[in-house]
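In line with agreed milestones, the collection of sequences with tokenised folds has grown. One record among many is set out beneath this paragraph:
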Amino acid sequence: MKGMKKIEEIKDIGEIEEMEVKEIEEMKGTRKTEEVKDIGETKELEELENLEDNPGKCSKCQNNIEKSWCHPCNAKRFQKEFGKWTSENREIDELIQQIQLNANKYQEIIEWIPFGRLENVAYLAKGGFGTAYKANWLDGIIYSHKKKMIKNQLKLRGKNAIAIYGITKNPTENEYMMVMDYAEYGSLQNLLNDNFKKLTWRRKYNILSSIVIGLTNIHEIGLMHKDFHSGNIVNQSLTLSYITDFGLCKPVTENNLENIYGVIPYMAPETLSRGEYTQASDIHSFGMVMLEVLTSY
């Protein structure tokens, strides 16, 4: 038995190393859907991109900065572009503009993405609050040649909630859509259905750890998810999980009794009996997800 245990441990280590190599390759930019724009078209942009060479000071305005991002210079740069695009919805335009003007780092940016810049659009699934598609974004993440720096920062962008890159509009359906990072393995539910035999105990632990980090971050900013189940968790690898679908997400201060909504096996008793949602209800739902990850049931 001891010999078998050692063999399993060695196998686990090999699997983890294989996973790490894959993630490093993704950071290097091998995934076509995350191609970074070539924006070295003007002297002004080149000056801003040189910030990485002198991360303590902006080479353009000489202000002290953090993490290669000069807020005043980039805010001016965004403002110059405002007249060149529109979502045809004033509130959405203002939302994107305010986020761009207030961004203090690359990973806080979202942008207006013309639907024509998305190709190979294909239906994935329909959820409680919308329909999911996958596509290739021709332009990719904006504003740097520094692919490795951008991709490393984007790994932390959503704090284990799926990254949002921008907003677009489907002209055929006349509906607005969020453009988010693509999860190669789909929902956690699908991952468990299709790959449960590949999930070692170490991998199960890593899946649950990443989910805990995401849920903790949601709770720490005073929110509750309210629709937490394995269909609303997606995976970019066998162990890298992200929380998504915040259609019911609300501040804890808005804890009014309301209509019951959710997936019954994951719902807390107080929710089912009284329509009461709290952060503790999310924890109950996580317990059901934990059981599902450990047993596949």
Summary: The beta strands are 111-112, 118-127, 130-137, 164-170, 175-180, 223-224, 233-235, 241-243, 250-251. The first strand starts at residue 111 and ends at 112. The chain has a mean pLDDT of 76. Residues 35-52+64-180 form one domain.
